[in-house]
Amino acid sequence: MMWTPDHTFAYRANRSVDDAVNLALHSILQHLDSPGTYARILFVDFSSAFNTIRPALLQDKLSQLSVPDSLCSVLSPLLFSLYTNCCTSSHQSVKLIKFADDTTLIGLISNGDETAYRRESQPLCPPLPSPITIADSFRFLGTTITRDLKWEPTISSLIKKAQQRMFFLRKLRKLKLPPRMLAQFYTAIIESILTSSITVWYAGATVRDRLRLQRIVRAAEKVIGCRLPSIQDLEIYRSRRCAGRITADPSHPGHGLFSPLPSGRRLRSIRTKTSRYTNSFFPSAIRLLNTK
């Protein structure tokens, strides 16, 4: 599907929600590593997007691709991506990331010059009667992004949800379910919550928050009566799998960040200055792959 812009993540093989968030954060943190910089992020969610396509404009694009008319009625989400494929950024300091009907515009501002960001955001923003409110946090593709780029709110939310589900695990134990079934319940209902988008936030989590997450695992082990994978082990496994998927796909927008050294045995480290950039996905994933 060569017509799809490089930074479109929905309906593409080997691209995920976490990839979109990680790439957005990488652009921001890399930029903030330099003095005199800041970033602005505009989140756009098109209401009822899949039902508002103008057929006449879409038909022109479909005819160029020789798509049979019989396929059009079952491809609404994909067709929406095709419909909006011309929505791209024309300035290197403005990144545009799309996931279905969620569009994120990232302005990498230096020396207070927002000209390019405002020019690129204008077509996406209708005139508003009052100033736009700058939020302290926003839920971006399932992950809470805060103004200070810290992960405590995201982790606290996941812990709260996991604790609520622990109630059901204890109820099932009282019903004398065998440990194997309890473990399956834990993996599907509790572990899946604790590890939601873990490649995005775990490397940047504080020691305190990591211990809070692991306490949920220890509590589940006592209920089930068997050892369970630690949160850290799960993060290592998923980060390696995610990094391996990206390195194997030259078309992935993050592929170039995994650059091999001349020896071919190790990857080139990403130069970082701040700890939050050092502890983001791409630099930490490269360190992880280099320690195999």
- Helical run tally: 11
Rg from alpha-carbon coordinates: 22 Å
Q: Can you count the beta strands?
A: 5
Describe the global form.
globular
Mean pLDDT: 84
Task: Give the CA-CA distance, first to last residue.
Answer: 34 Å
Largest sheet report: 3 strands, antiparallel
Helix amount, in percent? Answer: 40-55%
Beta-strand percent range: 5-15%
Unreliable stretches (pLDDT < 50, length at least 5) are 1-5
Oligomer: single chain
**How would you write the strand order of the largest sheet?**
1-3-2
Order of helices and strands: HEHHEEHEEHHHHHHH
Which class of secondary structure composition applies to the elements? mainly alpha
Describe this structure in words.
By secondary structure, the chain is mainly alpha-helical. It folds into two domains: 17-146, Alpha-Beta Plaits (2-Layer Sandwich), CATH 3.30.70; 150-291, no CATH class. The chain is 46% helix and 11% strand. It contains eleven helices and five strands. The strands form two sheets. It has a three-stranded antiparallel sheet with strand order 1-3-2, sandwiched between helices. The protein has a two-stranded antiparallel ribbon with strand order 4-5. Helix 5 (152-174) packs antiparallel against helix 6, helix 5 packs parallel to helix 8 (207-224) and helix 9 (231-247) crosses helix 11. The longest helix has 23 residues, at 152-174. It is globular. It starts with 16 loop residues before the first helix and ends with a helix. Mean pLDDT is 84; it is low at 1-5.
